[in-house]
Amino acid sequence: MGERRRNQIKMINLSVCSAMGVPILFRARNPEYVISIMESTDRIRETVPGKILWSAKHFAFCFKDSPVATMPGAPTREDVKDLVKTGRELFPPGATTSALIHCSSGMSRSPAAAFIFFCIHFGSNREEQAAVRTTICCEQNIVVPNKLMIEYADELLHRNGEMLKQRDTFG
Q1: Residue 169: exposed, middle, or buried by beta-carbon count in 10 A (0-12, 13-18, 19+)?
Q2: How does pLDDT run across 100-125, given as a tens digit for each residue?
Q3: Residue pLDDT, tens place only, 56-104
Q4: Is 73 left (phi over 0), alpha (psi -120 to 50) or beta?
């Protein structure tokens, strides 16, 4: 038994939900980090209880759930670059970090962030595994990661379209 435990793969533990699900999942999972992706910091303060935000290390990313770069409030390359930077710091290969990631509905921006984080954690050529793990960690039955976020991350992580191919398998 001890030998089997020693040989287990170290992996991050991500939970993805809507803003409404944060209190329940936070109590159930007790994550080290909370990552909020909402339209504004005001929306984060309105939907996530303060005691939760201050019980864990909190990261806030503010942009709308838009798949089109020209729409006001859409995620920018810089937004996703910041998300990738956070992912590299918190979820490198071999990490066992836990995080709760949420957006308004838990169906687009937060699954996109989780997918990006799993891609960072697993490394190149493991996008399919990252997609499977993302599906497993999401509370919603149907998730479609934000396409614009995945496009930018695919470019930033030099994945040559592999993340976009896997993104199309969600749903």
Answers
A1: exposed
A2: 999 999 999 999 999 999 999 999 99
A3: 799 999 999 998 999 999 999 999 999 999 999 999 999 999 999 999 9
A4: left
